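Need tokens for this chain, all 181 residues.
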Amino acid sequence: MKVENRTHWNTRDLRAIIARVVLDETDPETRKRLRIRVQYNRQVKGSCSGHAYLGTGQRPGSATVMVPSQSIDLIDLAHVVAHEVAHSRGVTHAQMRGSPRYDRVAGSRALYAWAESMPMRRAEPKRKAKPTTDTVLALARKREREWTTRLRRATTLQRKWRNRVRDLERRVAAVQPVSEA
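Here are the structure tokens for all 181 residues:
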């Protein structure tokens, strides 16, 4: 299973909830090919949503789960993950209708109540590593070579156009009549 996180939520926390649901919903072979993308929905607060390709469709085992940016209802997240994973296995809405496992009906929150105790933290901001002196020196040398090449090309072009101007001036001078003084 691969989880692609496009949010500020901690990937390990998301993966823990997703992995628990996927363990209940799929067999080991399906788990290997399962790809779940987590991204934001348009809500700041509220419920989660998602979409998935049916198991026999374009991309079997591919699902997207969308979460709000401010706070996530973890029970709802687990429920949506189960719903989308079922789609990736080929289960349709008609087959899910009325099931607390996949449909938001009475008893569905109790089924995923375990998710409430799971942590959901914001990810630490990624910091860029400070470049080493060797890296900076290598980049400076590369830039120097690039600009040396550009200078040579510019000098060659300047010489070419200087010769062209001189040739045109000679032609113009040869065509003009000599005036008698």
